[in-house]
Write a structure and sequence with these properties.
Elements lengths: L2 H4 L6 H12 L5 E2 L11 H11 L14 H15 L5 H4 E4 L2 H12 L5 E6 L4 H8 L3 E6 L10 H7 L4 E6 L12 H14 L2 E5 L26 E6 H4 L8 E5 L1 H14 L5 H10 L4 H25 L12 E5 L6 H12 L1 E2 L1 E2 L10 E5 L4 H12 L3
Parallel strand pairs: 1-10, 3-4, 3-5, 5-6, 6-7
Antiparallel strand pairs: 2-8, 7-8, 9-12, 11-12
Helix pairs in contact: 2-14, 3-12, 4-12, 6-7, 6-11, 13-15
The structure holds pyridoxal-5'-phosphate.
Pyridoxal-5'-phosphate binds next to α6.
Amino acid sequence: MGRLQKLPPYLFAALDAAKRRAREAGVAVVDLGIGDPDRPTPPELIDVMARAIADPACHRYPAQRGDMVLRTAIATWLQRRHGVAVDPATQVLVLLGSKEGLGHLPVTCVQEGDNTLVPDIGYPVYGQATILAGGEPRTFHLTAANGFRPDLAELDALIDDRTRLLFLNYPNNPTGATADPVFWRQVADLCARRGVTLVNDAAYLEMSLDGGAQPCLLATADATKERVIELHSLSKMFNMTGWRVAFAVGHPELIESLGRVKDTMDSGVFTAIQRTAAYALGPDFERLLAGVAEPYRARRNRLVATLEQAGYEIFPAKATFYVWCRVPGGEGSAAYCQRALAEIGVVVTPGTGFGTGGEGWFRISLTASETDLEEGARRLAGWR
Ligand SMILES: Cc1ncc(COP(=O)(O)O)c(C=O)c1O
């Protein structure tokens, strides 16, 4: 079978079609499914972008692996925000979104017959990119009993001499689970002992909903010595999903390999966007971020209060703009979400969209207007 044929079907396709049909039938659909910020990029960043876009120097091919101004801003930001020292020239690579970096990572190291470890529940790109590179994704479990963190013994048992990458994602989509330095040390030690490269998808790192920064992998593992790589993104940080700018930071050999793959695949991020990203990560970072994160915190608190009062069980998440809820009454996730759309016009995402481990759960995204979130919560609260 060809690699493309091995890709699993798009699990959200059925839900998308059902959503379209409901709208066509005149149902006032409240869409709490998609994880894409409804709010605009901060106006200050739009102004920086507007100035940059008028500069002809931005109109040429960009610095492919990232302009040194941005790479230096990233290194300075990492030091200031997370206490991590990295060399901007050899340990930082600018990406066209973290999805692009995650998609290309297996190309750097996975040969036919190799495998990677991917979480079930998880973002589908890790496994699919592994398949496209000719490898086999091996899934490990994330369970409520473990706070949606992996069981290290299970990981150890799955690793063999063809295991190249372990993908983790904290703060986690879809559960909102977070990591801590003790956990990071344990996983980094396991990977070092077994010769596996550790990847953390940190797309939601700055979407901390209860104050204070979440601990990143790089604050624990030393990326100058250990084979670790972390992917950060401005997409969720600054409501910039459409802009496509992110960055990888890690061991110099991993950054060089990913850079080499990218040299073939793309020509870098538009220079005007790179300039805006450098500004966003600069001295005003915390102020800009507060304006983005605060509305999610308020939305989360209101939604969770309504649903808990109605008897829903919700995973107590500290980060991300998702709310992870247990399906009431033991119903299957897909059936419950289909019924929610058909009977009360509310779109929520079945946990099984993220793997079989999501059975029994559903995800609500906070990236909808206050009005929609209130209406959605009201409808869910008065229904089973
Ligand atoms: C867990 C996770 N990682 C990565 C991404 C990709 O983000 P981007 O490519 O916009 O940086 C997403 C997007 O939804 C995500 O949910």
